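Hi Y.,

Following your request, here is the sequence exactly as I used it, all 211 residues.
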Amino acid sequence: MEGKLKLTKTFRYYTYGNPEKAQNIWFVLHGYGQLAFYFLRKFNVLDPDKHFVVAPEGMHRFYLKGTSGRVGASWMTKEARLDDIEDNHHYLDQLSEQFLNTYTFDQRVVLGFSQGGATASRWHARNSFCADHFILWACVFPPDLEVKQDKKSIEASRNYFIIGKKDQYFEDHFEAIINKYQQEIPGIKIIPFDGPHNIDHETLLSVANDI
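Below is the corresponding structure, written out as tokens. Let me know if you'd prefer a different format.
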């Protein structure tokens, strides 16, 4: 018989920028097998006096190959999936409240990259952070969260879908995904870039200037 026990767990996050000066706060969720420390480096092209970036780390860390060497993190697996989804929500809610209760920001941004996009989508749908801008990067809405279910939070935010033309995970259905979101999300800004499955600095700066 399965049992469950709730305990306090230590979560890790990293920040970039000056929260006392920054106009915008970003929550950026990394992809599968990444660590927040390294993922955050992809955002150091942003002006630290305008953008304050918070990179939470997925709660599950593991060796990328074998039983030693490089370590990565993930947000969840299919095992105990619903529990992990709820734990992620509580984690992100508490972390965001920590900054929002201390500093004042004009704009709130949620960006989910790759696997982090699924967690970002579910958190955005929860609407506890009340993001002004929602960015899906190299990711699609998770199958359990259709756009119609996220209607309230989607309509309340300015939305971006960013994808590389050479992204190995989407090359076979690149146009189909773009057409789907253009039809389902009125006003969404579709931004394809000429690159692989990664955060493209030029595209990131273009989006930041649009905020």
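The beta strands are 13-16, 24-29, 51-56, 60-63, 71-74, 107-113, 133-137, 158-164, 189-193.

Thanks again,
Q.
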